[in-house]
# Entry
Amino acid sequence: MTSKVPFVLAGCALLIAAALANAGSSRGEPTGAGISTSYRDRPPLAHTGGFGEPTCAACHAGTALNGGGGTVEIRGLPKHYRGDSSYTIVVTIVQTEMIYAGFELSLRDSLGKRLGKLSTSNPAVLVSSSEAGVQYAYHSRLGTTHLYPDTARWAVTWTAPDDPSGPAVLNVAINAANGDNSEFGDAIYVVERVALPARTHK
# Structure
């Protein structure tokens, strides 16, 4: 008589695998093709491409870095900044056939340490600190959609330190996603800008 034990064990294994996958999804863990949508709520910290960090390309694949044919614009960070002054930094991505978009940025000194303070009152943008004390601004789920065709834009406020003594290094990573609920076919961009402290004249 043919034994049914192997078939029973195989069925149990499939059920267990399915249960584990569902459990991961309920906890918000990225699972397979859903990784792109899981990061719509927030990207992992320390993925700006600056100071040796990875970029969005760690989880998304598509064109070469900065090779997606889109346009990135950074406004609001002056060439020279003043102590205890606030600046509104606006990040814009224009990409044809873009369905969703996300970003992450940081402002640090030349050693990669936190410089000043990032803040926002916009629900499309969130701010958190890493274990190393570096602040990051990034998209919320609301911030992944855009109001204009093929264009996404985010704004965050940076308050410079009281006594600036060195350059402020801005690193930004942007993901222009095609919305296919996978990590493939997206365009990743990185930008670095440097602002120097303004000279004071007596």
